[in-house]
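pls design
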């Protein structure tokens, strides 16, 4: 896999530096759509000499050449992923997790829509994820099973 990352960077016109490879490796192995701060902490724990500015600059360079995608789905911080192909994302308003989702009839960059040339597409869906919905149902069912305390006569 390291060779594939080197080729990806070179094909995008970037020199495959150890820092770029470390950030790309983390994103390839992490599908939770991490923030730049989370990426920095993870990469720094394995490469203690890397500084925060290098991680931010690396993310910017990788995004600029289309190797990674920056998501602005969450208000508090941008998120990143190694899949550069545009696709829809779902963010749970309860737990905050972000998921890749499949939707029919996707519009892609390069498509023509009513005479307009599409350059970028960002589909963000917000709601309650399946895990949180299941937890809510389980909690509701559990609360219905609680037996009231007996009163003294």
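designed seq:
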């Amino acid at each position: 896999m390291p060779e594939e990352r080197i080729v990806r960077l070179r094909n995008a016109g970037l020199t495959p530096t150890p820092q770029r490879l470390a950030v790309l490796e983390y994103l390839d192995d992490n599908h939770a759509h991490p923030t730049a701060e989370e990426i920095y902490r993870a990469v720094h724990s394995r490469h203690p000499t890397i500084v925060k500015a290098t991680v931010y600059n690396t993310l910017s360079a990788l995004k600029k050449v289309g190797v990674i995608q920056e998501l602005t789905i969450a208000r508090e911080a941008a998120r990143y992923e190694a899949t550069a192909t545009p696709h829809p994302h779902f963010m749970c308003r309860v737990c905050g997790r972000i998921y890749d989702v499949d939707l029919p009839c996707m519009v892609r960059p390069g498509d023509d829509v009513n005479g307009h040339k599409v350059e970028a597409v960002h589909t963000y869906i917000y709601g309650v994820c399946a895990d949180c919905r299941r937890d809510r149902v389980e909690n509701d069912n559990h609360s219905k099973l609680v037996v009231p305390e007996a009163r003294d006569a």
